[in-house]
Write a structure and sequence with these properties.
With 367 residues, the protein is α/β, with parallel strands linked by helices. The protein is built from 13 helices and 16 strands. Strand 2 (57-61), helix 3 and strand 3 form a beta-alpha-beta unit. The radius of gyration is 21 Å and the shape is elongated.
Length: 367
């Protein structure tokens, strides 16, 4: 039996669908007040269901909603360690991670986002290898598996002794600035993660600056604007490449949020899932414009969780316009989607067109 630690941040990711930029601090309470529902149980279910060698695993889990609630009655051998109250806090994560280290587990599986990764680093640092399952809003650090199923593959690889480890970056995101639409990040520390090609994501690249890059974004924007139609609602995702479109139109843009344009005018800003669904009920034809995250390649599932599986199913793959500067695309082997729905992810996978300049497109794989 392989001893594997199991910790869940139960509130991670709750702010995504309601348009909040995370759940750190008091944002979790605000997310709940806004009607946010956690997608974490579904992602944990995907993770547990995809493990092939479950009889070889002995989980040592955090109690209640931080662990045991998800693995009991699932056919896994496990025991519970630690105590928590009705509300959970970062200190609970740190405390239980230290207890798990003392139990000499082989690896720690944790579910959360960048904030949870920082808590794990604070508690065990490089002393304990981890599998980080992405269930937060952003996940800009390079320690995370690309999705919950990839994390399952990592567990199976460990059981088969097919694994080596490497140190990957944990980023410190200024959550106050991020909630105001400003991305400020710096290196916080490192965690040891499995070294497996295509199963672990990279860190988010910072936005490139310079005259050539600005020119590329302007060319892309001109192409998009020229092809806009008056009867289509356009939902603009986050990022400076998308913002170049509104810059050319002389319109404001929520840099890290989702805005709606109709007939080249902003009609809604910083939309959440319910706001988008309301617009889709009003407008008969809609398209999404997104740019992949630099260094990672995600078009959905990182920093734009307002685009939920329900919305992506409504819009359809053919109505998603992907734009990216050539330099950004050169650093990516493929694009990725992590919508939280396996069915939606599979619909979007395959070859797709990407606008890379004025009347210039290329084809790349979505995985």
């Amino acid at each position: 039996m392989r001893l594997i630690g199991f910790i869940v941040n139960p509130i991670a990711g709750m702010g995504g669908t309601v348009g909040l930029k995370g759940t750190d601090g008091d944002l979790s309470k605000k997310a709940i007040e806004m009607g946010a529902k956690s997608t974490t149980p579904k992602l944990i279910d995907q993770f547990l269901s995809s493990i092939e060698n479950k009889k070889e695993i002995y989980f040592i889990a955090a109690p209640d909603i931080m662990g045991e609630s998800y693995i009991k009655n699932r056919g896994f051998n496990y025991k519970v360690i630690g105590q928590i109250g009705k509300e959970t806090f970062p200190e609970d994560t740190k405390k239980i991670a230290k207890l798990l280290y003392d139990k000499k587990i082989e690896i720690l599986v944790f579910f959360g986002g960048d904030g949870t990764a920082r808590d794990i680093y604070d508690s065990v640092g490089l002393k304990l290898p981890v599998i980080a399952v992405p269930t937060g809003v952003k996940m800009f650090s390079s320690v995370f598996a690309v999705n919950s199923r990839a994390a399952s593959q990592l567990v199976d690889a460990i059981i088969l002794n097919n694994i080596t480890y490497e140190e990957r970056e944990v980023l410190d995101i200024n959550e106050t600035s991020y909630s105001k639409g400003i991305l400020e990040s710096k290196l916080y520390g490192y965690l040891r993660v499995p070294k497996v090609l295509n199963l672990i994501q990279a860190s988010k690249d910072t936005s490139r600056i310079g005259s050539s890059y600005d020119f590329e974004k302007k060319e892309i924007a001109l192409h998009v604007i020229e092809n806009m139609e008056n009867d289509i609602l356009y939902l603009l995702g986050p990022g400076t490449t998308v913002k170049a479109i509104t810059d050319e139109l002389g319109l404001p843009k929520t840099l890290l949020g989702i805005d709606a344009i109709y007939r080249k005018e902003i009609i809604e800003k910083d939309l959440n899932e319910q706001g988008i669904l309301g617009l889709l009920n009003t407008y008969s034809h809609a398209q999404i414009i997104v740019t992949p995250i630099g260094g990672q390649g995600f078009i959905f599932g990182r920093g734009n969780k307002q685009f939920t599986p329900k919305i992506l199913e409504n819009i359809g793959k053919k109505n998603v316009i992907i734009i990216a500067a050539k330099e950004k695309l050169k650093s990516l082997k493929c694009l990725r989607i992590d919508s939280t729905s396996i069915d939606i992810d599979n619909i979007f996978k395959g070859l797709t067109n990407v606008i890379i300049g004025y009347k210039e497109e290329t084809v790349i794989q979505i995985e």
